[in-house]
């Protein structure tokens, strides 16, 4: 995609969201945010879940996108998947669930994610 096409997309998205100045400034400066290794579906899943927990407003979209960027900058995707899996499997009842709640690796992975989310809370929601 050419820079011109990116500029047109930014203009159309920016005007729909209330202004294109930040997107244009970033493109013009050539300083687009560094890409992360998260797939688009993981990004969308995080942002949609965050928005649902925060009222599904345009303001929550902005804050939740910021939150995702912070988490992605701190926690590599593979570690995020580990932590998410441990959290999900920890909800299983009985002996099987206990294994995912009490293991050292699960506690470490979940701790990494929680610290990143706490940093995101400070940067994006306060």
Question: Tags for this entry?
Answer:
mainly alpha, 2 domains, 126 residues
Description:
This protein has helices at 3-17, 21-29, 40-53, 58-74, 77-89, 95-102, 104-125. It is an all-alpha fold. The longest helix has 22 residues, at 104-125. It is globular and about 40 Å long. The relative contact order is 0.10.
Question: What does this entry show, briefly?
Answer:
The protein is mainly α and 126 residues long.
- Strand count, sense and closure of the main sheet? none
As a percent range, the share of strand residues is: under 5%
What integer value in Å does the Rg equal? 18 Å
Indicate the percent of residues in helices. Answer: over 70%
- Average per-residue pLDDT, rounded, comes to 78
- What is the count of DSSP helices, taking H or I runs of 4+ residues? 7
Outline the low-pLDDT stretches: 1-32
Number of strands: 0
Total domain modules: 2
Shape: globular
Structural class: mainly alpha
Order of H and E elements: HHHHHHH
Q: How far apart are the termini?
A: 36 Å
